[in-house]
Amino acid sequence: MRGCLLVKNIGTLQTATGNSVRCGSAQGENTKLENAAILIKDGMIEEITCDGELPKSAGAAGLVLDAEGNLVTPGLVDAHTHLVFGGYRQNEIPLKLKGASYVDILKAGGGILDTVKKTRRASFEELYEKSTGFLDEMLALGVTACEAKSGYGLDFENEIKQLEVLKKIAEEHPIDIVATYMGAHAVPEEYKGKPDEYISMVCGTVMPYVAENGLAEYCDVFCEDSAFNVGQSREYLLCAKACGFGLKIHADEIEAIGGSKLAGELRAASAEHLIATDEEGIEALSKSGTVAVLLPGTSFYLGKQYAPARRMIELGVPVALATDFNPGSCPSLNLQLIINMACLKYKMTPEEILTAVTINAACAVGRGGAIGTLEKGKQGDLVVWDAKDMETLCYRFGSNLALQVIKKGELV
Ligand code: NIG
Ligand code: FE
Protein backbone atom coordinates (compact mmCIF):
# COMPACT_ATOMS: atom_id res chain seq x y z
CA MET A 1 0.00 0.00 0.00
CA ARG A 2 1.26 3.49 -0.86
CA GLY A 3 1.77 5.75 2.15
CA CYS A 4 2.68 2.79 4.34
CA LEU A 5 6.26 2.39 5.59
CA LEU A 6 7.70 -0.45 7.63
CA VAL A 7 10.99 0.07 9.45
CA LYS A 8 12.24 -3.32 10.57
CA ASN A 9 15.30 -4.81 12.22
CA ILE A 10 15.65 -1.93 14.69
CA GLY A 11 18.33 -2.88 17.25
CA THR A 12 16.88 -0.60 19.92
CA LEU A 13 13.87 1.67 19.60
CA GLN A 14 14.32 4.24 22.36
CA THR A 15 11.71 6.82 23.27
CA ALA A 16 10.12 8.70 26.13
CA THR A 17 6.36 8.20 26.37
CA GLY A 18 3.28 10.39 26.80
CA ASN A 19 2.09 13.76 25.60
CA SER A 20 3.30 15.95 28.41
CA VAL A 21 6.57 17.13 29.91
CA ARG A 22 8.69 14.74 31.91
CA CYS A 23 10.51 16.11 34.93
CA GLY A 24 12.51 14.94 37.92
CA SER A 25 13.31 11.23 37.76
CA ALA A 26 10.74 10.79 34.94
CA GLN A 27 12.99 12.91 32.71
CA GLY A 28 15.43 10.00 32.74
CA GLU A 29 12.89 7.27 31.98
CA ASN A 30 12.89 5.98 28.40
CA THR A 31 11.28 2.90 26.92
CA LYS A 32 13.82 0.70 25.11
CA LEU A 33 12.44 -1.95 22.78
CA GLU A 34 14.86 -4.51 21.38
CA ASN A 35 14.68 -6.01 17.90
CA ALA A 36 11.76 -3.74 17.09
CA ALA A 37 9.73 -2.68 14.06
CA ILE A 38 7.48 0.27 13.40
CA LEU A 39 4.69 0.65 10.87
CA ILE A 40 3.72 4.13 9.70
CA LYS A 41 0.51 4.62 7.74
CA ASP A 42 -0.54 7.91 6.13
CA GLY A 43 2.12 9.70 8.13
CA MET A 44 1.03 8.36 11.51
CA ILE A 45 2.43 5.58 13.68
CA GLU A 46 0.15 2.56 13.32
CA GLU A 47 1.97 -0.11 15.30
CA ILE A 48 5.24 -0.76 17.11
CA THR A 49 6.45 -4.28 17.86
CA CYS A 50 9.52 -5.78 19.51
CA ASP A 51 11.41 -9.03 20.16
CA GLY A 52 11.49 -9.90 16.48
CA GLU A 53 7.73 -9.77 15.97
CA LEU A 54 6.38 -7.81 12.99
CA PRO A 55 3.33 -5.50 13.00
CA LYS A 56 0.06 -7.21 11.99
CA SER A 57 -0.28 -5.30 8.71
CA ALA A 58 3.47 -5.35 7.91
CA GLY A 59 2.63 -7.10 4.65
CA ALA A 60 0.70 -4.02 3.46
CA ALA A 61 3.78 -1.80 3.58
CA GLY A 62 4.61 -0.22 0.23
CA LEU A 63 8.13 0.44 1.40
CA VAL A 64 10.34 -1.51 3.81
CA LEU A 65 13.42 0.00 5.42
CA ASP A 66 15.94 -2.28 7.12
CA ALA A 67 17.46 -0.43 10.10
CA GLU A 68 20.24 -3.05 10.23
CA GLY A 69 20.25 -3.35 14.00
CA ASN A 70 20.70 0.38 14.61
CA LEU A 71 19.16 2.75 17.13
CA VAL A 72 15.87 4.48 16.26
CA THR A 73 14.57 7.49 18.20
CA PRO A 74 11.84 10.06 17.63
CA GLY A 75 12.83 12.90 15.28
CA LEU A 76 14.62 15.63 17.22
CA VAL A 77 12.82 18.86 18.07
CA ASP A 78 14.83 22.10 18.18
CA ALA A 79 12.77 24.28 20.54
CA HIS A 80 14.74 27.52 20.14
CA THR A 81 16.13 29.00 16.94
CA HIS A 82 16.47 32.43 15.36
CA LEU A 83 16.24 30.90 11.90
CA VAL A 84 15.50 33.89 9.66
CA PHE A 85 18.24 36.51 9.45
CA GLY A 86 20.16 38.58 6.94
CA GLY A 87 23.95 38.35 6.64
CA TYR A 88 26.34 36.81 9.15
CA ARG A 89 28.55 38.19 11.91
CA GLN A 90 31.91 36.56 11.25
CA ASN A 91 33.31 40.10 11.41
CA GLU A 92 32.89 39.86 15.22
CA ILE A 93 35.55 37.15 15.47
CA PRO A 94 38.55 39.54 15.61
CA LEU A 95 36.70 41.62 18.24
CA LYS A 96 36.03 38.50 20.29
CA LEU A 97 39.69 37.54 20.01
CA LYS A 98 40.62 40.94 21.43
CA GLY A 99 38.40 40.22 24.42
CA ALA A 100 35.17 42.07 23.51
CA SER A 101 32.17 40.40 25.14
CA TYR A 102 28.76 39.82 23.56
CA VAL A 103 27.37 42.82 25.45
CA ASP A 104 30.36 45.06 24.53
CA ILE A 105 29.67 44.34 20.87
CA LEU A 106 25.92 44.92 21.28
CA LYS A 107 26.47 48.23 23.12
CA ALA A 108 28.76 49.42 20.32
CA GLY A 109 25.83 49.07 17.90
CA GLY A 110 26.95 45.65 16.62
CA GLY A 111 25.50 42.31 17.64
CA ILE A 112 21.75 41.96 17.18
CA LEU A 113 21.48 45.52 15.77
CA ASP A 114 23.98 44.68 13.03
CA THR A 115 21.84 41.69 12.03
CA VAL A 116 18.76 43.93 12.15
CA LYS A 117 20.35 46.20 9.51
CA LYS A 118 21.19 43.21 7.32
CA THR A 119 17.75 41.65 7.78
CA ARG A 120 15.96 44.88 6.91
CA ARG A 121 18.02 45.09 3.71
CA ALA A 122 17.35 41.47 2.72
CA SER A 123 14.44 40.69 0.41
CA PHE A 124 11.71 38.19 1.26
CA GLU A 125 13.15 35.81 -1.39
CA GLU A 126 16.71 36.02 -0.02
CA LEU A 127 15.52 35.25 3.50
CA TYR A 128 13.30 32.48 2.22
CA GLU A 129 16.14 30.79 0.27
CA LYS A 130 18.62 31.12 3.10
CA SER A 131 16.25 29.81 5.79
CA THR A 132 15.20 26.90 3.58
CA GLY A 133 18.87 25.95 3.22
CA PHE A 134 19.29 25.96 7.00
CA LEU A 135 16.21 23.76 7.40
CA ASP A 136 17.53 21.27 4.83
CA GLU A 137 20.71 21.04 6.89
CA MET A 138 18.75 20.60 10.13
CA LEU A 139 16.59 17.85 8.62
CA ALA A 140 19.69 15.94 7.52
CA LEU A 141 20.94 16.17 11.12
CA GLY A 142 17.78 14.49 12.43
CA VAL A 143 15.63 17.51 13.33
CA THR A 144 12.00 17.05 12.25
CA ALA A 145 10.41 20.03 14.03
CA CYS A 146 11.67 23.40 15.16
CA GLU A 147 10.67 26.65 16.71
CA ALA A 148 11.74 29.84 14.92
CA LYS A 149 11.72 33.37 16.23
CA SER A 150 11.47 36.70 14.47
CA GLY A 151 13.28 39.61 16.14
CA TYR A 152 15.70 40.93 13.52
CA GLY A 153 13.22 43.32 11.92
CA LEU A 154 12.16 45.28 14.99
CA ASP A 155 9.72 47.39 12.99
CA PHE A 156 6.34 46.54 11.55
CA GLU A 157 7.39 45.83 7.98
CA ASN A 158 10.44 43.72 8.70
CA GLU A 159 9.06 41.69 11.61
CA ILE A 160 6.10 40.78 9.41
CA LYS A 161 8.50 39.97 6.56
CA GLN A 162 10.35 37.48 8.78
CA LEU A 163 7.10 35.91 9.98
CA GLU A 164 5.72 35.68 6.43
CA VAL A 165 8.92 33.89 5.40
CA LEU A 166 8.31 31.40 8.22
CA LYS A 167 4.70 30.96 7.14
CA LYS A 168 5.67 30.14 3.56
CA ILE A 169 8.44 27.79 4.67
CA ALA A 170 6.08 26.06 7.09
CA GLU A 171 3.73 25.34 4.18
CA GLU A 172 6.49 23.96 1.99
CA HIS A 173 9.25 22.38 4.06
CA PRO A 174 9.00 18.90 5.60
CA ILE A 175 10.15 20.24 9.01
CA ASP A 176 7.24 21.34 11.23
CA ILE A 177 7.74 24.96 12.22
CA VAL A 178 6.37 26.81 15.23
CA ALA A 179 6.69 30.57 14.83
CA THR A 180 7.43 32.96 17.68
CA TYR A 181 7.12 36.73 17.44
CA MET A 182 10.15 38.21 19.20
CA GLY A 183 9.44 41.90 18.77
CA ALA A 184 11.25 42.55 22.06
CA HIS A 185 14.65 41.19 21.01
CA ALA A 186 16.50 44.52 21.23
CA VAL A 187 15.69 48.22 21.25
CA PRO A 188 16.08 49.33 17.61
CA GLU A 189 18.27 52.35 16.71
CA GLU A 190 15.28 54.60 16.05
CA TYR A 191 14.04 54.01 19.63
CA LYS A 192 17.47 54.26 21.27
CA GLY A 193 17.04 55.28 24.91
CA LYS A 194 13.25 54.89 24.60
CA PRO A 195 12.54 51.21 25.33
CA ASP A 196 9.16 52.00 26.94
CA GLU A 197 7.97 53.77 23.81
CA TYR A 198 9.19 50.87 21.71
CA ILE A 199 7.27 48.34 23.82
CA SER A 200 4.12 50.51 23.55
CA MET A 201 4.48 50.60 19.77
CA VAL A 202 4.98 46.83 19.61
CA CYS A 203 2.01 46.11 21.86
CA GLY A 204 -0.23 48.64 20.12
CA THR A 205 0.61 47.88 16.51
CA VAL A 206 2.72 44.88 15.56
CA MET A 207 1.59 42.27 18.08
CA PRO A 208 -2.16 42.66 17.40
CA TYR A 209 -1.47 42.33 13.65
CA VAL A 210 0.58 39.17 14.22
CA ALA A 211 -2.28 37.75 16.30
CA GLU A 212 -5.05 38.66 13.86
CA ASN A 213 -3.15 37.15 10.95
CA GLY A 214 -2.12 33.97 12.77
CA LEU A 215 1.57 34.64 12.05
CA ALA A 216 2.92 33.25 15.35
CA GLU A 217 1.88 31.05 18.26
CA TYR A 218 4.26 32.43 20.89
CA CYS A 219 5.81 35.75 21.89
CA ASP A 220 9.30 36.02 23.34
CA VAL A 221 11.27 38.81 25.05
CA PHE A 222 14.99 39.26 25.78
CA CYS A 223 14.82 40.12 29.50
CA GLU A 224 18.31 41.42 30.17
CA ASP A 225 20.09 44.61 31.28
CA SER A 226 21.20 45.34 27.75
CA ALA A 227 17.71 44.72 26.31
CA PHE A 228 14.43 44.93 28.31
CA ASN A 229 14.04 45.15 32.08
CA VAL A 230 11.58 43.07 34.09
CA GLY A 231 8.85 45.74 33.97
CA GLN A 232 9.08 46.11 30.20
CA SER A 233 9.22 42.34 29.75
CA ARG A 234 6.14 41.92 31.92
CA GLU A 235 4.23 44.52 29.91
CA TYR A 236 5.15 42.83 26.62
CA LEU A 237 4.23 39.35 27.88
CA LEU A 238 0.95 40.46 29.46
CA CYS A 239 -0.03 42.03 26.15
CA ALA A 240 0.97 38.77 24.42
CA LYS A 241 -1.19 36.80 26.82
CA ALA A 242 -4.16 39.09 26.17
CA CYS A 243 -3.67 38.53 22.42
CA GLY A 244 -3.80 34.74 22.97
CA PHE A 245 -0.11 33.91 22.49
CA GLY A 246 1.86 31.39 24.53
CA LEU A 247 4.71 33.02 26.45
CA LYS A 248 8.45 32.52 26.13
CA ILE A 249 11.25 34.46 27.71
CA HIS A 250 15.01 34.75 27.15
CA ALA A 251 15.91 34.75 30.83
CA ASP A 252 19.20 35.01 32.75
CA GLU A 253 21.39 34.63 29.67
CA ILE A 254 23.98 37.16 30.85
CA GLU A 255 22.70 38.29 34.29
CA ALA A 256 19.91 37.02 36.53
CA ILE A 257 17.83 40.21 36.61
CA GLY A 258 14.58 38.39 37.41
CA GLY A 259 13.65 36.79 34.09
CA SER A 260 13.10 33.30 35.44
CA LYS A 261 11.01 34.63 38.31
CA LEU A 262 8.91 36.55 35.79
CA ALA A 263 8.49 33.34 33.76
CA GLY A 264 7.22 31.63 36.91
CA GLU A 265 4.90 34.50 37.81
CA LEU A 266 3.31 34.53 34.33
CA ARG A 267 3.36 30.74 34.01
CA ALA A 268 5.29 31.04 30.76
CA ALA A 269 5.44 27.97 28.53
CA SER A 270 9.23 28.19 28.59
CA ALA A 271 12.15 30.12 29.99
CA GLU A 272 15.20 29.89 27.76
CA HIS A 273 18.98 30.16 28.35
CA LEU A 274 19.03 30.29 32.19
CA ILE A 275 22.82 30.35 32.25
CA ALA A 276 22.94 32.64 35.28
CA THR A 277 19.78 31.40 37.03
CA ASP A 278 19.93 31.24 40.83
CA GLU A 279 18.15 28.96 43.28
CA GLU A 280 15.15 31.29 43.56
CA GLY A 281 14.74 31.33 39.80
CA ILE A 282 14.85 27.53 39.60
CA GLU A 283 12.23 27.27 42.35
CA ALA A 284 9.96 29.72 40.50
CA LEU A 285 10.19 27.58 37.35
CA SER A 286 9.54 24.37 39.21
CA LYS A 287 6.37 25.82 40.78
CA SER A 288 4.95 27.02 37.47
CA GLY A 289 5.83 23.92 35.43
CA THR A 290 7.64 26.16 32.93
CA VAL A 291 9.96 24.24 30.60
CA ALA A 292 13.62 25.27 30.93
CA VAL A 293 14.97 25.36 27.38
CA LEU A 294 18.74 25.09 27.86
CA LEU A 295 21.19 26.16 25.18
CA PRO A 296 24.70 24.88 25.90
CA GLY A 297 25.93 25.92 22.44
CA THR A 298 25.52 29.54 23.54
CA SER A 299 27.54 29.00 26.75
CA PHE A 300 30.22 27.44 24.59
CA TYR A 301 30.25 30.17 21.98
CA LEU A 302 30.10 33.05 24.47
CA GLY A 303 32.63 31.40 26.80
CA LYS A 304 30.13 31.48 29.68
CA GLN A 305 29.28 29.07 32.45
CA TYR A 306 26.78 26.27 31.76
CA ALA A 307 23.19 26.40 33.07
CA PRO A 308 22.59 24.43 36.30
CA ALA A 309 20.77 21.61 34.53
CA ARG A 310 21.28 18.97 37.25
CA ARG A 311 19.84 21.24 39.92
CA MET A 312 16.86 21.98 37.69
CA ILE A 313 16.15 18.29 37.18
CA GLU A 314 16.59 17.71 40.92
CA LEU A 315 14.00 20.41 41.70
CA GLY A 316 11.54 19.02 39.14
CA VAL A 317 11.93 21.56 36.35
CA PRO A 318 11.28 19.92 32.95
CA VAL A 319 14.43 20.45 30.89
CA ALA A 320 14.53 20.75 27.10
CA LEU A 321 17.63 21.32 24.97
CA ALA A 322 17.94 23.43 21.84
CA THR A 323 20.54 25.07 19.62
CA ASP A 324 19.63 28.80 19.85
CA PHE A 325 20.82 28.89 16.23
CA ASN A 326 21.50 32.56 15.42
CA PRO A 327 24.24 34.63 13.76
CA GLY A 328 25.68 36.05 16.99
CA SER A 329 25.69 33.89 20.09
CA CYS A 330 25.42 30.40 18.54
CA PRO A 331 26.04 30.10 14.81
CA SER A 332 25.40 26.34 14.84
CA LEU A 333 22.20 24.50 13.99
CA ASN A 334 23.60 21.10 14.95
CA LEU A 335 21.38 19.63 17.66
CA GLN A 336 23.60 16.53 17.77
CA LEU A 337 26.41 18.72 19.07
CA ILE A 338 24.05 20.02 21.76
CA ILE A 339 23.49 16.39 22.81
CA ASN A 340 27.26 15.98 23.35
CA MET A 341 27.47 19.21 25.33
CA ALA A 342 24.47 18.34 27.51
CA CYS A 343 26.14 15.10 28.47
CA LEU A 344 29.65 16.43 29.04
CA LYS A 345 28.87 19.88 30.45
CA TYR A 346 25.45 19.51 32.09
CA LYS A 347 26.14 15.89 33.15
CA MET A 348 22.74 14.84 31.87
CA THR A 349 22.26 11.12 31.21
CA PRO A 350 21.60 9.84 27.67
CA GLU A 351 17.98 9.10 28.67
CA GLU A 352 17.43 12.57 30.16
CA ILE A 353 18.93 14.07 27.02
CA LEU A 354 16.66 12.10 24.68
CA THR A 355 13.64 13.32 26.66
CA ALA A 356 15.02 16.88 26.46
CA VAL A 357 15.42 16.91 22.67
CA THR A 358 12.11 15.17 21.96
CA ILE A 359 9.02 15.26 24.20
CA ASN A 360 10.08 18.12 26.50
CA ALA A 361 11.12 20.20 23.50
CA ALA A 362 7.83 19.33 21.76
CA CYS A 363 5.91 20.45 24.85
CA ALA A 364 7.87 23.72 24.99
CA VAL A 365 6.39 24.50 21.57
CA GLY A 366 2.90 23.13 22.22
CA ARG A 367 3.23 19.96 20.15
CA GLY A 368 3.42 17.27 22.86
CA GLY A 369 0.25 15.60 21.60
CA ALA A 370 1.51 15.14 18.05
CA ILE A 371 5.27 14.57 18.15
CA GLY A 372 8.16 13.92 20.54
CA THR A 373 7.63 10.21 21.23
CA LEU A 374 7.23 7.03 19.20
CA GLU A 375 3.77 5.78 20.08
CA LYS A 376 0.68 4.73 18.16
CA GLY A 377 -1.24 7.78 16.95
CA LYS A 378 1.73 10.14 16.89
CA GLN A 379 3.31 11.51 13.72
CA GLY A 380 5.74 9.13 12.01
CA ASP A 381 8.83 11.29 12.63
CA LEU A 382 11.93 9.29 13.44
CA VAL A 383 15.64 8.90 12.92
CA VAL A 384 17.65 5.76 12.20
CA TRP A 385 21.08 6.45 13.67
CA ASP A 386 24.51 5.21 12.71
CA ALA A 387 24.74 4.04 16.32
CA LYS A 388 23.49 1.19 18.45
CA ASP A 389 22.62 3.26 21.51
CA MET A 390 22.13 6.81 22.85
CA GLU A 391 25.53 6.66 24.55
CA THR A 392 27.13 6.75 21.10
CA LEU A 393 25.25 9.99 20.31
CA CYS A 394 26.63 11.48 23.53
CA TYR A 395 30.12 10.23 22.70
CA ARG A 396 30.85 10.93 19.03
CA PHE A 397 30.91 14.63 18.29
CA GLY A 398 31.28 16.64 15.13
CA SER A 399 29.96 13.94 12.77
CA ASN A 400 26.43 13.61 11.50
CA LEU A 401 25.25 10.25 12.85
CA ALA A 402 21.77 10.44 11.32
CA LEU A 403 21.62 7.61 8.76
CA GLN A 404 18.03 8.01 7.66
CA VAL A 405 15.53 10.67 8.68
CA ILE A 406 11.83 9.87 8.31
CA LYS A 407 9.23 12.64 8.36
CA LYS A 408 5.54 11.74 8.51
CA GLY A 409 6.42 8.31 7.18
CA GLU A 410 8.45 9.61 4.22
CA LEU A 411 12.18 9.04 3.77
CA VAL A 412 13.73 12.51 3.55
O1 NIG B 1 19.42 33.88 22.19
N1 NIG B 1 19.97 36.88 23.36
C1 NIG B 1 19.29 37.19 22.45
N2 NIG B 1 19.16 36.55 21.30
C2 NIG B 1 20.05 35.58 20.79
C3 NIG B 1 21.24 36.17 20.17
C4 NIG B 1 20.89 36.90 18.96
C5 NIG B 1 22.06 37.52 18.26
O2 NIG B 1 23.11 37.76 18.84
O3 NIG B 1 21.86 37.78 17.06
C6 NIG B 1 20.35 34.55 21.85
O4 NIG B 1 21.48 34.43 22.33
FE1 FE C 1 17.88 32.92 21.55
Word description of this protein:
With 412 residues, this protein is an alpha/beta fold. It has helices at 93-97, 102-107, 112-121, 124-140, 156-172, 195-212, 230-242, 259-265, 279-288, 296-302, 309-314, 335-344, 350-357, 359-364, 390-395; strands spanning 4-15, 31-41, 44-49, 63-66, 71-74, 76-78, 143-149, 176-184, 218-223, 246-251, 270-273, 291-294, 319-321, 382-385, 402-407, 410-411. The strands form 2 sheets. Strands 1, 2, 3, 4, 5, 14, 15 and 16 form an 8-stranded mixed β-sheet that branches. An 8-stranded parallel β-sheet has the order 6-7-8-9-10-11-12-13. α4 crosses α5, α6 (195-212) runs parallel beside α7 and α8 packs parallel to α9 (279-288). Fe (iii) ion (FE) binds at residues 80, 82, 250, 324, 326.
Principal-axes geometry comes out as: globular
Helix content: 25-40%
Please tally the β strands and state the result: 16
Helices and strands: which structural class? alpha/beta
The whole-number mean of residue pLDDT values reads 97
Separation, N- and C-terminal Cα atoms: 19 Å
List of distinct ligands in this structure:
N-(iminomethyl)-L-glutamic acid, fe (iii) ion
Please summarize the sheet with the most strands: 8 strands, mixed
Indicate the low-confidence ranges by residue numbers. Answer: none
> What's the total helix number?
15
Give the radius of gyration. 21 Å
Kindly estimate the percentage of residues that lie in beta strands according to DSSP: 15-25%
